[in-house]
Automatic annotation (TrEMBL):
Protein name: Glutamine--fructose-6-phosphate aminotransferase [isomerizing]
Annotated SIS domain residues: 292-431, 464-609
Cell compartments where the protein resides: Cytoplasm
Cited PANTHER family: GLUCOSAMINE--FRUCTOSE-6-PHOSPHATE AMINOTRANSFERASE, ISOMERIZING, GLUTAMINE--FRUCTOSE-6-PHOSPHATE TRANSAMINASE (ISOMERIZING)
Listed Pfam families: GATase_6 (PF13522), SIS (PF01380)
Length: 619
């Protein structure tokens, strides 16, 4: 949450920072602001609302040109989304400007101290104390980087901070604890940002920052001008990496919304996640996992922790892991995990699933798991992010950047990665024969084409979605792996269309939720294959009849050739036949399209739904 950019170089800092903020707006859009160092002073502007409001303000009241600057796009925590609470925050003399992502837990105490010393703080934010503390420390120490180190040692909580000082016009300083910050290194210029997307148009050379580190960027000989230390000033080891996607991947590419583009990219994303992971003999080669086979053989329990859509991927993974490996698997909301004192040990394998790799709830859950001696494997889409860095091993999904707040291609690729892990466990432990594994891999390899086919047939789903735009409630039903798909369909609709939407296990209907069925309530039913577990299929056909008898309007998602559902479907959406466990990979797609279209018909902002942010870096 919150997007941060810092720049030092020879271009217009304002242009670079604004372009970066545009790329980071998915992280929060309650307000935006910038500060530049120019003519021996510091100039800043900030505005509540989206970045467009700030841009308008800058046209009306331009800032002087400068080549050092910082910017921020906010997801509000402390203090509402007003101009005064927008970042950057300045000290009383207007010499220091700071932007922040995270929460400073001891800010009330620090604020009281500052007030006693005569500082006047104008906002309700936790961030403003940092500007004042930096100003105090700067006057007595060797520069902004040293002042930042001293201040960070006094802060509790999670934070990324980026600051500039008018007395050091060639310097931008950043710091991080439990919140993301990456460095971009260009020719005679350098960048700081919450995400590489902010500077990918300028450089693909990046440096990861570790926990509790301070980075100083200097214009004089940048490259060498990037200095990283810990909070005590000791030089830190840095890891450089090359970003393997380019600026076009972070553009809309002709689509109205990033979400539409990301839905369309799913066939490729699914194929990319399989790429290089299957050997010539058809066996899985997940050497990148770096978890010794001996450890995997000893695993007596798998626990999956994740949030939101990633949690739904975990729920589906449980079916595959237990079926293919016979290892008990629990799936837990990361935000609940550590508070219930889970039973973990040296033989537990904890899988943390996260698109962003920065979700604080998931990060805290994995830290707890490691403290208990468990081995932690991350399934993640973002190279160099905190969750994989803090895990014992990582399997990257190769979805490419996902910008829309609603997760789509990340979900499908998380599923593919989970299937790979499940099969790999089966391979290493000998619970699946080689030819069985090869058969599933062949089915997985076909999925990319099947998703493509689903996407080609979505026009009736769009028409249907538009026709339902005035409904208040949509319900989703599924059984077996279709149940988490129902949860995911409901989540997509809630977050995008702001409608009451709920997913249920179809068998649970009669235990209460069936009371929600009234005349013309749309109910989406994900029907399992009649060929797999036919008992499941028969039961759900009965469930469809039960709700239809009570007036529901049934929207049935069923595989091609399933004729049994036809008499009971008010609307029928066909998906290709797949093996039972893989069906979520095709069944989720119409639900994404449905939610996106319904949100559009209701006039909602598809890529930036209200109150949400893409990367949730607070608990
Ligand atoms: O980055 P993560 O995968 O850890 O994010 C987890 C959830 O916040 C995320 O999936 C969220 O639920 C999406 N907005 C759903 O579309």
């Amino acid at each position: 949450m919150c997007g941060i950019v810092g720049y030092v170089g020879s271009q217009s800092a304002l242009d670079v920072v604004l372009a970066g903020l545009k790329r980071l707006e998915y992280r929060g859009y309650d307000s935006a602001g910038v500060a530049v160092l120019a003519d021996g002073g510091l100039a800043s502007a900030r505005k509540a609302g989206k970045l467009a409001n700030l841009e308008k303000e800058l046209v009306e009241r331009p800032l002087p040109a400068g080549a050092t600057g910082i910017g921020h796009t906010r997801w509000a925590t402390h203090g509402g989304p007003t101009d005064v609470n927008a970042h950057p925050h300045l000290d009383n003399a207007g010499r220091v400007a700071v932007v922040h992502n995270g929460i400073i837990e001891n800010f009330a105490e620090l604020r009281a101290e500052l007030a006693e010393r005569g500082h006047v703080l104008e906002s309700e934010t936790d961030t403003e104390v940092v500007a004042h503390l930096l100003a105090e420390e700067f006057s007595g120490c060797a520069g902004l980087a040293e002042a930042m180190r001293l201040v960070c040692r006094r802060l509790e909580g999670a934070f990324t901070l980026v600051a500039v000082h008018a007395d050091e016009p060639d310097v931008v300083v950043g710091a991080r604890r439990n919140s993301p910050l990456v460095v971009g290194v260009g020719e005679d210029e350098a960048f700081l940002a919450s995400d590489v997307a902010a500077f990918i148009a300028h450089t693909r050379s990046a440096i990861e920052l570790g926990q509790d580190q301070v980075v100083e960027l200097r214009r004089d000989g940048v490259g060498d001008g990037v200095t990283v230390t810990d909070f005590d000033g000791r030089p830190a080891e840095v890891r450089s990496y090359h970003v393997d996607w380019d600026a076009s991947a972070a553009e809309k590419g002709g689509y109205d919304y990033f979400m539409l583009k990301e839905i369309a990219e799913q066939p490729k994303a699914v194929a990319d996640t399989l790429l290089g992971r299957i050997g010539v003999d058809g066996a899985l080669t997940l050497d990148e996992l770096r978890i010794p086979a001996a450890v995997l053989k000893e695993v007596d329990k798998v626990v999956i922790v994740a949030c939101g859509t990633a949690f739904h991927a975990g729920l589906i993974a449980k079916y595959a892991i237990e079926h293919w490996t016979r290892i008990p698997c629990e799936v837990e909301l990361a935000s609940e995990f550590r508070y219930r004192d889970p039973i973990l040990g040296g033989r537990s394998l904890v899988i943390a699933i996260s698109q962003s790799g920065e979700t604080m709830d998931t990060l805290m859950a994995l830290r707890h798991a490691r403290d208990q001696g468990a081995t932690v494997l991350a399934i993640c889409n973002t190279n160099g992010s905190t969750i994989p860095r803090e895990s014992d091993a990582v399997l990257y999904t190769h979805a490419g950047p996902e910008v829309a707040v609603a997760s789509t291609k990340a979900f499908l690729t998380q599923l593919v990665a989970c299937y790979l892990v499940a099969l790999y466990l089966g391979q290493v432990r000998g619970t699946k024969w080689g030819d069985e594994i090869r058969a599933v891999i062949r089915d997985l390899a076909d999925i990319s084409g099947e998703v493509e086919r689903v996407l080609e047939t979505m026009e009736p789903v769009r028409t249907l979605a538009r026709s339902l735009s005035d409904k208040r409630t949509v319900l989703f039903l599924g059984r077996h792996v279709g149940y988490p798909v129902a949860l995911e369909g409901a989540l997509k609709l809630k977050e995008l269309a702001y409608m009451h939407a709920e997913g249920f296990a179809a068998g649970e209907l009669k235990h209460g939720p069936i009371a929600l069925i009234e005349d013309d309530v749309p109910v989406v039913v994900i029907v399992p294959s009649p060929k797999g577990r036919s008992v499941l299929h028969d039961k759900i056909v009965s469930n469809i009849q039960e709700i239809r008898a009570r007036g529901a309007r049934t929207i049935v998602i069923a595989e091609e050739g399933d004729e049994a559902v036809v008499p009971y479907a008010d609307h029928l959406v066909r998906i290709p036949a797949t093996p039972t466990l893989l069906q979520p990979l095709v069944a989720a797609v119409p639900l994404q399209v449905f939610a996106c279209e319904l949100a559009t018909a209701r006039g909602n902002e598809v890529d930036q739904p209200r109150n949400l942010a893409k990367s949730v870096t607070v608990e």
